[in-house]
């Protein structure tokens, strides 16, 4: 039997359990899915929600639900600390509602030391699983309700890609789509390859048919997801390049906007630039993580490009697609980083003129090569360098932000503005936000908006 079929049978079993428990309580069971980390985790959470909904749970925002699941991230230590902090709160809820179930999954659970700590200090947790067996969630759910003990099921890796399980999307009009899983790059600071396993691409036909059915279901904007989308398809039995995949996605009727995350600069091809340039649907936004502007640090990071190569690439992209908005990720405080290296990073920020840059303080991840490097930078120096870089990032972004003022752009209306009544919030192709007067009925539609005023990091506008 196919794995998906097996899981659908477990969903039926879970349904009976949920019915039984609901009858006991005289009300429907509630669940709350809380996501930490990146877009890939957000997409995984939609799969968790899909299964919970199919099993009969009603999803709520509050964490004092009958079942709470944390889909965790471990890319930096503060993500881990937040989970531990909130587990304490969940324990309080569970004391009041002893039937409450607490589940943990995601990247953090792939670390043996985390599991050990939870077993010892958070024994009230009911279910733990990892990133490789998330497709077994229905089965694990059933096992959890049938057992008194904490269930821990962590796999070291998998080559399976299980298709066609239920998904509950957060937004009706836009969706992420995994095109690949895992990562093979082993940047020396990064834990992702250890917790997400080796790179595996989905078959193009599976991706396209998922997107076609999303389009039928009202989705107009999609984001293709992978740790390094530029190496998509290289290991398929019939290799397909990422640029080729994009061309085929573009042909799908109903899809009006295409985004993707993340592009590793070392693998960004001329073919991709060409396809973006001629595309009517691919958004004019490229997230191109720099990490550091110093060639010495880049080498120690195992990024496999130099400062000069990165600058040349950015220049080439800007020349071919002048209206593109570039964003990036930067790490400050990698082992061995001196003030001179930080100046190189600042130099790149100024030259590339990013629309936005996510700046992170280096976080030591046990098991990665960088964690064992000798010259770790002290906290005080990191903070000083970080503040300086952040200032440059903000000034650059502010200078760039106003450039569209007065122009008319397409915006996908995403939601009502929660601060001011009568205003709607839309997203431009370049990922910036615009607020403008409008009706709720516009949500999910793409409309023309004149950008009348720039408020720093967002625009005010009017529909035309
Ligand atoms: N695959 C993506 C990044 C995924 S992690 C890429 O290669 O660009 C998202 C970001 O977290 C990274 O770009 C990096 O800037 C940051 N990051 C990863 N590991 C980190 C660490 N140990 N300390 C601080 N930031 C880190
Ligand atoms: Fe981490 Fe590098 Fe892979 Fe991105 S490409 S997930 S930074 S190892
Ligand atoms: Fe975090 Fe895992 Fe994403 S570690 S950044 S949630 S792949």
Task: Outline the fold blueprint.
Layout (H helix, E strand, L loop, with lengths): L2 H23 L4 E6 L3 H16 L3 E2 L7 E6 L4 H20 L4 E6 L5 H10 L5 E3 L7 H10 L4 E3 L20 E5 L1 E2 L10 H5 L3 E2 L2 H13 L4 E5 L16 H9 L6 E5 L8 H9 L6 E3 L7 H6 L6 H14 L4 E8 L6 H14 L3 E6 L17 H23 L6 E9 L6 E6 L4 E5 L8 E9 L3 E6 L1
This protein binds S-adenosyl-L-homocysteine (SAH), iron/sulfur cluster and FE3-S4 cluster.
Iron/sulfur cluster binds next to helix 6.
Tell me what you see in this structure.
The chain is of the alpha/beta class. The protein is about 35% helix and about 20% strand. The longest helix is centred in the first third of the chain and has 23 residues. It is globular and about 65 Å long. The site of FE3-S4 cluster (F3S) has 11 residues, from helix 2 and helix 6.
Short précis:
It is built from 13 helices and 19 strands. With 464 residues, the protein is an alpha/beta fold.
Summarize this structure as a short list of keywords or feature phrases.
about 475 residues, alpha/beta, 6-stranded parallel β-sheet, 5-stranded mixed beta barrel, 13 helices, 19 strands, binds S-adenosyl-L-homocysteine, binds iron/sulfur cluster, binds FE3-S4 cluster
| Ligands bound, unique | S-adenosyl-L-homocysteine, iron/sulfur cluster, FE3-S4 cluster
What structural class is derived from the secondary structure elements?
alpha/beta
Poorly predicted regions? none
Q: Give the overall average pLDDT.
A: 96
> What is the helical fraction, as a range of percent?
25-40%
Q: What is the percentage of strand-forming residues?
A: 15-25%
Largest sheet: 6 strands, parallel
Distance between the termini: 55 Å
Spatial strand sequence of the major β-sheet: 2-1-3-4-5-6
Q: Determine the number of helices (DSSP H or I, runs of at least 4 residues).
A: 13
Oligomer: single chain
Radius of gyration (CA) equals 23 Å
